[in-house]
Amino acid sequence: MFKFHLKHKSTQGHARSGIFETAHGQVETPVFMPVGTLGTVKALTPEDLADCGAQIILGNTYHLYLRPTMEVIDLFGGLHDFMHWQGPILTDSGGFQVFSLAKRFKIDDEGAVFQSHIDGSRHVLTPEKAIAIQQALGSDIAMCFDQCIAYPAEYAQAKDALERTTRWAKRCKEAWRNSGDMGNALFGIVQGGMYTDLRERSLNELGALDFDGYAVGGLSVGEPIDIMLEIAESILPQLPVAKPRYVMGVGTPEDLVELTARGADMFDCVMPTRNARNGQLITPFGNFNISNARFKTDTKPIDADCTCYTCRHFSRAYLRHLYMSKELLAYRLNTIHNIFYYNQLMLQIRTAIKADQFAEFQKAFHTRRQSGG
User: Fold this and answer.
1) Which residues are catalytic?
2) Whether residue 293 has pLDDT greater than 90
3) Displacement of CA 218 from its chain's centroid (Å)
4) What are the residue ranges spanned by the domains of the chain?
5) How many CB atoms lie within 10 A of CB 232?
6) Environment class of residue 15 by beta-carbon count within 10 Å: exposed (0-12), middle (13-18) or buried (19+)?
């Protein structure tokens, strides 16, 4: 069912736009995927997401497997009906969460043995189990189980993780084929730390396995921005042209524009939702914190040019009042605005690429973001 169609490519660089088809609808790229780790994009209903222009959201194998458990989700026939979202869903395999959240974990060639961050219970996650869980969730795009490493990492450590990731990718592909349910897509994840030669090796090994799409993992893990962009610039253009290119866990509006310029098609990040709950609002002219005293009597909306529900109905003064009072509505209204902004940014990026004016858009975007309004 999954198909990707590359529609436009910038004549001034690597930026590109396209469409991929899934059982739950089409998605135009480049695209930002709001993060719905636990079967919800925090503070928003599925209708809010649709109104904000979200095309596809992300769920997580590790979290949903631990809570509410697959037994509960099975009662609804999968994640779509469980959470009342009928658009496409991508599920992460859980590799990053084992690395970042588990109380204790041990990784060997068989898989990962870890203690739940919720109750300390012991679990085993293998490539085969990660695929089985994602098939049961019914996601439209499943990710291979990979080994994540911290930054900085020694060359030998990055090499070992790369090799294990390749072995696991082969097992994921085999388990996916043997499941008899290949209606969804399966993406491989390029690893290799901050070493260009290891990234190229990972790319070549995964390319031989012919996945439906390719992700670049292990970025935005604490490395300086120039190193992240350097790795992305060296790897993204080498990924298969006819497959979607996904940079995982990224990022800021600036990251989305710069990585699109280097050939990326898909992004996800908790930043717009997490920042919203922390009172940080994201606008074309920079970010600001709504708790700032200067907004106490400010009758203007967050952004006078924004057409999101929040900006159409509420002032900065009211949003500050809600946030300072710890009213729950603050989190919803702030999140609506930030998710709407991200989706509008991606729409503007796609429009610029289609008109072959991305380089001009990129320059104007940075000028405005740095202007402060």
Assistant:
1) 92, 268
2) yes
3) 13
4) 3-269, 281-373
5) 23
6) buried
Tokens of 322: 């809600």
Note the CATH number of domain 3-269.
Answer: 3.20.20.105
The pTM is what?
A: 0.97
Note whether 146 and 165 are within 8 A (CB).
yes
95 versus 159: which is more confidently predicted?
159
Tell me the two tokens of residue 223.
């490395």
pLDDT digits (tens, 9 = 90+) for 166-215: 999 999 999 999 998 768 999 999 999 999 999 999 999 999 999 999 99
